[in-house]
């Protein structure tokens, strides 16, 4: 069936900000979908509030709305654009929920918009627990014993049937928010209450526990002629009980016989048919009892998902692209498999390698939250690795995680521990359980003992056991000195670095630790290393190259080599040389090539923004644009990204971003053609960390030199440069003792900002006002000594923080954007809201920042992107820091200004002068606000407060003609629904009291009632404001938290200073978070919120496309 | 750097070898049975079902390269066996076989192979071998396993070179039953295993065994038939004496043209007598030959569980153009260009357009090149059994 001609315009809903459970995989899917629909000549209208996405680049959709994804706003877009169809399956749960709501509201009927891809009824049938169960019963598939409850009493009635432990899942939440496993009745009641609360329909499903069962996923694609294919099977190494997004998974399934696999295959297709997913990709999850194969259907997602992104990258089959084409009427047989170019999309990919995915977590950012994994997803990113066997695959994944692992690193806290301690540790579902399994083998536990507590399949456990046994061999005997011996280890996935760690130098080649010593090798190994020195990674590499033990590159071709692949999508492996040399399929071209190193797994602080930059580098350099086309070569290991799509770069290596792996790729690429250089400045810290190793290996680095980047990050080198340029930094100093600290603080003058020098990302940072507080900080928060000095900075109270992004080519500096933060200095820049252009800074201040940025760019020799952070206080501009590389703000600047900043920078790095590009447009008749989005709701126990440590997972943008409207949109996009009226609770620190008055006055005039705690109430009353007093928590009940829990509070302004005040108010923030009450923890943001509430109601908001704003 | 594994020089620890007729020597580790076996090297891209593949008589005189690296994970059991006669003579895998992990496993894959006289070879770059087959065709070779690592490469090479190859070889006669048999097994279900056939069922299907997979008979039973299996060389009269409502032509190994020498006259007679016919794989090729078409040896064959086949031609109604994902195993194909007027093409491969199904116009006689009985592979095409059995008397 050809494509439909009765529709001509299609609305695609994106997934909004990056949050836990919904990350950049939906940028990948949305971008593919939009490209696919445009290819077919449809007019595509996109709504997505996330500016850091590729899909919102103005050249993709015909009309791009960076607007909040709320049904009301999307209804306005529909009214304006009048699309014929709505594709709701590309934007995760956000898009599905929004589409369902639009259907319910009658908007789709009113404007004659047809839902394509999945109909409202199919979505409901898949998502509504009871309807789904009924559907499964109908087709003879078993579901877990369960029941639905809308109240706690109903829940206890269901519990009679299911028994404990029991699994609670709220309906219609993504990533299982609010769900959990209850082992006793008290836990049960708590989780049910949370779940009812989290569910938009106040509904939870209570299920019999399938803990310990094996978990599988099937990725299915179906077309409207009822052709159905399985793209990939996925087996979870973590058994049931851990959310699949938090599970270590492998593809394909490895522990099923064909008979079991076919049952699952047929069941998956039957599920799609019964649910009524007419076209597109879906994911069906199963639990299998390892004892008898009993199969239970867990759930299905009638849309593309994180798993479909994984399946796409694992097989090469572009699920989202195909799903989009199917949605407009094509059938699978009419579409080509783009990987082979010769066969149709109607087949089932088969693979000849093993794929492992390992999630990455950020528990360290959320102190107070337990690191137990359960059915609510908590991971912030993931790594995927490909090897020719499971061992190679899993060890590549471990080192690709970039959490300091080189493989199965030791777990020191279990070294020498008793069996009881180890089994107890293994029984907890924690993020590092895989490593603990390795350690358990080291400590002598048997496979059976480990299986009994982890329920990991014995197959995987034996594989790990073999890895640990091989490690022991190396510890005992040193590195093999022959090629086959070393190749055997490399084929098991050992990194050079891990081998270096295992092989103590003095015994590197001959002899070694005795058998007993090797068994208890941990501490002893440390001692030997201390005495003899460790083998270095370079030495292992040298040995490996001397012996000719080199990886080869194989293609991911969707067909296990049955057909020739035309797409150079590759992974490395250590292959047996069956025909002469081991067969390498890289076939590097003779072109001029540029390698772009990606950002690896998403994490807080390094997410989609950097992938965006890498993708833009590929786009800019891959074709003739202000310069010749280069061959672009992408290296990355994050399956969620657009950068790892097969058609983003000319060549794609899906590999861990370690020096070893990257150097081997470059070795092969340099065999032919000319390696013009490597771009390390676009992927965040990940590639930057490799710059030194690349330089040492004589690899050309494009753009700003790594030394300049280091200069900007080295406190002392940078201070010299600043003084040479006569720029002003906040006063600062370093102290190595309490007395030194007091002296430095006295010199600078209180308040000062204190932080330990050895932690990155602003942890344990504190503002102190007096010597007494300084003593307190030194006594409690840090350990000050010669080895771990404390850094002391002048604290610029109430200073305005700014970001400036610029591009420099060595001769010219162009300012791309100046952003003013809304939160004052002291909140991590990634967590601050900001505006472009600045909403309250004078032109002279802006000009001064631009002047300083320019001076810095020249002084550092920047060639490419640069980001400078300033603080402005009392008309003085202070330089905070410079990052001569891509920054998190680049996509926002690009979207807010309509300039392809990253693309231009990439071209500049490749040698084009800035003068060949049009000057950046600087005057915008509109305002853009970026707001950060936080995952606090996922981490009960953690304090949901902003601090110098970054905690946000993503961002949204609000764009409108006025600051107030843009700010309101940014808040809506971030899920903060500002009230129109109700009771405001205020409790602010003394220094904020004066500042907050106008906001309170404005809201009272607007009809708000205001309550406040003692000091704030007194102050506001003195200003003539009618404010009621409420008890602080410490003052006894009834207090403010009671009022919040009872739903009496609509809005909270709560600022604090110092530990005590912060601790006192933690319960307020937690109650607000739980009750979904909008709350602001800085005065500046409170003022902005008040201004927005007073100035504009959500119903008055207008929608406009980027193309319209840009005048294109 | 030249690697010893590709030369005659035997690397230490090599206990298995594959010697191609062109002189290439590929060293690895042997497992399963010891000794040596000659055959054509093919590749199979299925990721599950290795035990079914190894017991499929259509693989007689073949050495199967599994493209999926981990083979043997789920061990071996007594159920996943497609035939008691000779199947593949050996297999080539990338990874050493692991301890099995599956509740159905009763034996390690290697031990099972040894018991069944099949040789395994691991530690091979199976992808490189597959690419070689794709580019230069399926080679003849000898696979050998000697735990002491002692091989007479010259003798193995001589044997590989002297082996005549599959073209022109009638292998059905080697793997068919010696006598007739009332088929007694039914479909497999989880937890219950194989069912029993009802011996009083109607209609009655006589199945000619050219090297059949048992699951075909089980599927016929599931579709409602009573099945009598007869040897490949059963005559027309002997078949008719069994009073069949329909005759089934099974899969099997070797060159259809060679087997056709005795099979085609029987099939022609059945066609002339208007006996309903259904063929699978070799049975499909024999029906085509009987109808006057020709078969050809394919370059690399189709072997796997992911092959798309499209319904084409008249008579499909609403399901015209539907794609079935199928299990395939054939190295010969019906040349669609030679199909006579009275034969309709019903299915084609979407991978390369080769013929995958035919129907004789005006008769209840049809056949498919692929394996609707699955095992291993997708079960999308069970309807064919229903169609055949449902259309009988």
Automatic annotation (TrEMBL), chain A:
List of residues binding Mn(2+) 2: 299, 301
Binding site for Mg(2+) 2: 299, 301
Residues that hold ATP 1 according to the record: 129, 169, 175-176, 208, 210, 215, 241-243, 285, 299
UniProt binding sites for ATP 2: 755, 794, 796, 801, 826-829, 869, 881
Enzyme Commission code(s) on record: 6.3.4.16, 6.3.5.5
Region feature (Allosteric domain): 976-1112
InterPro entries: ATP-grasp, CarbamoylP_synth_lsu_oligo_sf, CPAse_ATP-bd, CPSase_dom, CPSase_lsu, CPSase_lsu_oligo, CPSase_preATP-grasp, MGS-like_dom
Binding note for cofactor: Binds 4 Mg(2+) or Mn(2+) ions per subunit.
CDD domains xrefs: MGS_CPS_II (cd01424)
UniProt keyword annotation of Amino-acid biosynthesis present: yes
Source organism, top-level taxon: Bacteria
Positions contributing to Mn(2+) 3 binding: 869, 881
Residues binding Mg(2+) 3, per UniProt: 869, 881
Catalytic activity: hydrogencarbonate + L-glutamine + 2 ATP + H2O = carbamoyl phosphate + L-glutamate + 2 ADP + phosphate + 2 H(+); hydrogencarbonate + NH4(+) + 2 ATP = carbamoyl phosphate + 2 ADP + phosphate + 2 H(+)
Annotated SMART domains: CPSase_L_D3 (SM01096), MGS (SM00851)
Binding sites annotated in the UniProt record for Mg(2+) 1: 285, 299
Job of this protein: Large subunit of the glutamine-dependent carbamoyl phosphate synthetase (CPSase). CPSase catalyzes the formation of carbamoyl phosphate from the ammonia moiety of glutamine, carbonate, and phosphate donated by ATP, constituting the first step of 2 biosynthetic pathways, one leading to arginine and/or urea and the other to pyrimidine nucleotides.
HAMAP family from the UniProt entry: CPSase_L_chain_B (MF_01210_B)
Family assignment from sequence similarity: Belongs to the CarB family.
Domain description: The large subunit is composed of 2 ATP-grasp domains that are involved in binding the 2 ATP molecules needed for carbamoyl phosphate synthesis. The N-terminal ATP-grasp domain (referred to as the carboxyphosphate synthetic component) catalyzes the ATP-dependent phosphorylation of hydrogencarbonate to carboxyphosphate and the subsequent nucleophilic attack by ammonia to form a carbamate intermediate.
Record's protein name: Carbamoyl phosphate synthase large chain
Record organism: Erythrobacter fulvus
Lineage of origin: Bacteria, Pseudomonadati, Pseudomonadota, Alphaproteobacteria, Sphingomonadales
UniProtKB/TrEMBL annotation, chain B:
Signal peptide (UniProt feature, chain positions): none
CDD domains: GATase1_CPSase
GO molecular function: carbamoyl-phosphate synthase (glutamine-hydrolyzing) activity
Pathway where this protein functions: Amino-acid biosynthesis; L-arginine biosynthesis; carbamoyl phosphate from bicarbonate: step 1/1; Pyrimidine metabolism; UMP biosynthesis via de novo pathway; (S)-dihydroorotate from bicarbonate: step 1/3
Cited SUPFAM superfamilies: Carbamoyl phosphate synthetase, small subunit N-terminal domain, Class I glutamine amidotransferase-like
Region (CPSase): 1-203
Ranges where the Carbamoyl-phosphate synthase small subunit N-terminal domain occurs: 14-144
Keywords of this entry: Amino-acid biosynthesis, Arginine biosynthesis, ATP-binding, Glutamine amidotransferase, Ligase, Nucleotide-binding, Pyrimidine biosynthesis
NCBIfam families: CPSaseIIsmall, PRK12838.1
Task performed by this protein: Small subunit of the glutamine-dependent carbamoyl phosphate synthetase (CPSase). CPSase catalyzes the formation of carbamoyl phosphate from the ammonia moiety of glutamine, carbonate, and phosphate donated by ATP, constituting the first step of 2 biosynthetic pathways, one leading to arginine and/or urea and the other to pyrimidine nucleotides. The small subunit (glutamine amidotransferase) binds and cleaves glutamine to supply the large subunit with the substrate ammonia.
Annotated protein name in UniProt: Carbamoyl phosphate synthase small chain
Species for this entry: Erythrobacter fulvus
Lineage, top ranks: Bacteria, Pseudomonadati, Pseudomonadota, Alphaproteobacteria, Sphingomonadales
């Amino acid at each position: 069936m050809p494509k439909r001609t009765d529709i001509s315009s299609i609305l695609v809903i994106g997934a909004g900000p990056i949050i836990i459970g919904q990350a950049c995989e939906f940028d990948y899917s949305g971008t593919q979908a939009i490209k696919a629909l445009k290819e077919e000549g449809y007019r595509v209208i996109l709504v997505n509030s996330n500016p850091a996405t590729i899909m919102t680049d103005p050249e993709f959709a015909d009309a791009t709305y960076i607007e909040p994804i709320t049904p009301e706003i999307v209804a306005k877009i529909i009214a304006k654009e009048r699309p014929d169809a709505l594709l709701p399956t590309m934007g995760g749960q956000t898009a599905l929920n929004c589409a369902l709501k639009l259907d319910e509201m009658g908007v789709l009927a009113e404007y004659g918009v047809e839902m394509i891809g999945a109909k409202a009824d199919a979505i409901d049938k898949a998502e509504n627990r009871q309807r789904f169960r009924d559907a499964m019963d109908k087709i003879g598939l078993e579901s877990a014993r369960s029941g639905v409850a809308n109240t706690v009493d109903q829940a206890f009635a269901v519990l009679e049937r299911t028994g404990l432990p029991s699994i609670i899942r709220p309906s219609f939440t993504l990533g299982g928010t609010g769900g959990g496993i209850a082992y006793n009745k008290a836990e049960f009641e708590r989780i049910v209450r949370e779940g009812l609360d989290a569910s938009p329909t106040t509904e939870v499903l209570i299920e019999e526990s399938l803990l310990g069962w094996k978990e599988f996923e099937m990725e299915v694609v179906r077309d409207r002629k009822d052709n159905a294919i399985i793209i990939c099977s996925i087996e979870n190494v973590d058994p049931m009980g851990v959310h699949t997004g938090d599970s270590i998974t492998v593809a394909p399934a490895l522990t099923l016989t064909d008979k079991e696999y076919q049952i699952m295959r047929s069941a998956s297709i039957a599920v799609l048919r019964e649910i009524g997913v007419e076209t597109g990709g879906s994911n069906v999850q199963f639990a299998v009892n390892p004892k008898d194969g009993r199969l239970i259907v867990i759930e299905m997602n009638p849309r593309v998902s994180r798993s479909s992104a994984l399946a796409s990258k694992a097989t090469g089959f572009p699920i989202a692209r195909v799903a989009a084409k199917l949605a407009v009427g094509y059938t699978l047989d009419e579409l080509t498999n783009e990987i082979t170019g010769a066969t149709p999309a109607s087949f089932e990919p088969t693979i000849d390698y093993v794929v492992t995915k390992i999630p990455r977590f950020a528990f360290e950012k959320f102190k107070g939250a337990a690191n137990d994994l359960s059915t609510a997803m908590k991971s912030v990113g993931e790594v995927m690795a490909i090897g020719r066997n499971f061992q190679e695959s899993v060890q590549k994944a471990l080192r690709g995680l970039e959490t300091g692992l080189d493989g199965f690193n030791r777990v020191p806290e279990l070294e020498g521990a008793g069996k009881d301690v180890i089994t107890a540790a293994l029984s907890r579902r924690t993020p590092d359980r895989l490593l603990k399994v390795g350690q358990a083998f080291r400590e002598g536990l048997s496979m059976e003992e480990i299986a009994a507590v982890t329920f990991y399949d014995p197959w995987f456990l034996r594989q790990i056991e073999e890895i640990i046994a091989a490690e022991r061999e190396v510890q005992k005997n040193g590195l093999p000195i022959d090629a086959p011996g070393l190749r055997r280890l490399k084929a098991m996935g050992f990194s050079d670095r891990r081998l270096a760690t295992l092989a103590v130098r003095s015994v590197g080649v001959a002899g070694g630790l005795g058998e007993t010593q090797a068994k208890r090798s941990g501490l002893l190994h440390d001692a030997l290393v201390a005495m003899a020195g460790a083998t270095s990674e370079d030495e292992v590499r040298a040995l490996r190259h001397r012996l000719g033990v080199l990886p080869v590159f194989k293609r991911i071709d969707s067909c296990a080599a049955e057909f020739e692949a035309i797409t150079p999508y590759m992974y490395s492996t250590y292959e047996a040389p069956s025909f002469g040399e081991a067969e390498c399929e890289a076939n590097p071209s003779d072109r001029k090539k540029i390698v772009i190193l990606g950002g690896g797994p998403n994490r807080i602080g390094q997410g989609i923004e950097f992938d965006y930059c890498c993708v833009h580098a590929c786009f800019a350099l891959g074709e003739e644009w202000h310069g010749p086309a280069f061959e672009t070569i992408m290296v990355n290991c994050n399956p969620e990204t657009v950068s790892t799509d097969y058609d983003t770069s000319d060549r794609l290596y899906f590999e861990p971003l370690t020096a070893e792996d990257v150097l081997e790729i470059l070795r092969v690429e340099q065999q032919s053609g000319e390696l013009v250089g490597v771009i390390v400045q676009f992927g965040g810290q990940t590639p930057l960390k490799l710059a030194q190793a690349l330089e040492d290996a004589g690899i050309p680095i494009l753009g700003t030199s790594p030394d300049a980047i280091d200069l900007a990050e080295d406190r002392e080198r940078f201070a010299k440069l600043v003084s040479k340029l006569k720029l002003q930094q906040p006063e600062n100093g370093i102290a190595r003792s309490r007395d030194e600290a007091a002296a430095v603080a006295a010199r600078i003058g209180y308040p000062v900002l204190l932080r330990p020098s050895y932690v990155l990302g602003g942890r344990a940072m504190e503002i102190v006002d007096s010597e007494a507080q300084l003593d307190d900080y030194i006594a409690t928060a840090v350990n000050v000594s010669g080895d771990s000095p404390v850094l002391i900075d002048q604290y610029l109270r109430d200073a305005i923080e700014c970001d400036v992004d610029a591009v420099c080519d060595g001769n010219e500096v162009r300012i791309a954007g100046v952003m003013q933060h809304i939160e004052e200095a002291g909140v991590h820049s990634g967590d601050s809201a900001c505006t472009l252009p600045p909403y309250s800074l004078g032109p002279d201040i802006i000009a001064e920042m631009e002047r300083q940025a320019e001076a810095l760019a020249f002084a550092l020799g920047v060639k490419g992107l640069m980001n400078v952070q300033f603080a402005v206080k009392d008309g003085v501009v202070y330089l905070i820091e410079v990052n001569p590389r891509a920054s998190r703000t680049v996509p926002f600047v690009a979207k807010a200004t309509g300039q392809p900043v990253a693309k231009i920078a990439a071209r500049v790095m490749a040698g084009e002068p800035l003068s060949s590009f049009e000057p950046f447009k600087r005057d915008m008749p509109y305002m853009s606000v970026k707001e950060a989005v936080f995952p606090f709701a996922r981490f009960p126990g953690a304090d949901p407060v902003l601090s110098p440590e970054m905690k946000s997972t993503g961002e949204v943008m609000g764009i409108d003609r006025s600051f107030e409207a843009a700010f309101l949109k940014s808040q809506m996009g971030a899920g903060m629904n500002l009230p129109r009226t109700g009771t405001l609770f205020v409790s602010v620190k003394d220094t904020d009291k004066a500042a907050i008055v106008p906001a309170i006055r404005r809201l009272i005039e607007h009809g708000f009632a205001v309550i406040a705690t003692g000091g704030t109430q007194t102050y506001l009353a003195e200003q003539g404001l009618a404010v009621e007093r409420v008890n602080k928590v410490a003052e006894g009940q009834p207090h403010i938290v009671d009022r919040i829990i009872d739903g009496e509070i609509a809005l909270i302004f709560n600022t604090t200073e110092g530990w005590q005040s912060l601790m006192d108010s933690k319960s307020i923030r937690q109650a607000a978070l739980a009750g979904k009450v909008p709350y602001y923890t800085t005065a500046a943001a409170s003022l902005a919120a008040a201004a927005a509430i007073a100035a504009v109601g959500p119903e008055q908001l207008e929608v406009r496309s980027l193309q319209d704003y840009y005048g294109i | 750097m030249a690697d010893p594994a590709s030369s005659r020089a035997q690397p230490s620890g090599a206990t298995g070898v594959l010697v191609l007729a062109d002189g290439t020597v590929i060293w690895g580790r042997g497992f399963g049975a010891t000794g040596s076996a000659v055959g054509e090297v093919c590749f199979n891209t299925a990721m599950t079902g290795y035990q079914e593949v190894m017991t499929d008589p259509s693989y007689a005189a073949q050495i199967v390269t599994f493209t999926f690296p981990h083979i043997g994970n789920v061990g071996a059991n007594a159920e996943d066996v497609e035939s008691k006669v000779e199947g593949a003579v050996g297999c080539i895998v990338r990874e050493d076989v692991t301890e099995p992990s599956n509740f159905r496993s009763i034996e390690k894959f290697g031990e099972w192979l040894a018991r069944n006289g099949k040789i395994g070879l691991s530690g091979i770059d199976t992808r490189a071998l597959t690419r070689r087959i794709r580019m230069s065709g399926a080679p003849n070779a000898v696979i050998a396993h000697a735990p002491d690592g002692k091989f007479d490469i010259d003798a193995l090479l001589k044997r590989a070179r002297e082996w005549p190859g599959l073209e022109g070889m009638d292998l059905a006669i080697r793997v068919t039953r010696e006598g007739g048999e009332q088929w007694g097994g039914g479909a497999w279900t989880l937890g219950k295993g194989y069912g029993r056939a009802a011996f009083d069922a109607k209609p009655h299907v006589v199945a000619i065994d050219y090297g059949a997979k048992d699951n075909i008979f089980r599927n016929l039973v599931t579709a409602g038939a009573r099945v009598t299996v007869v040897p490949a060389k059963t005559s027309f009269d002997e078949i008719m004496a069994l009073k069949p409502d329909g005759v089934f032509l099974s899969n099997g190994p070797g060159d259809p043209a060679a087997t056709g020498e005795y099979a085609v006259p029987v099939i022609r007679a059945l066609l002339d007598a208007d006996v309903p016919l259904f063929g699978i794989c070799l049975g499909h090729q024999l029906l085509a030959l009987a109808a006057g078409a020709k078969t050809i040896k394919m370059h690399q064959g189709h072997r796997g569980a992911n092959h798309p086949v499209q319904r084409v031609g008249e008579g499909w109604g609403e399901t015209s153009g539907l794609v079935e994902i199928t299990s395939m195993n054939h190295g010969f194909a019906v040349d669609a260009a030679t199909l006579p007027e009275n034969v309709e093409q019903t299915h084609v491969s979407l991978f390369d357009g080769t013929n995958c199904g035919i129907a004789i116009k005006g008769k209840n006689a049809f056949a498919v090149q692929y394996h609707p009985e699955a095992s291993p592979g997708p079960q999308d095409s069970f309807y064919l059994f229903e169609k055949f059995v449902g259309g009988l008397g």
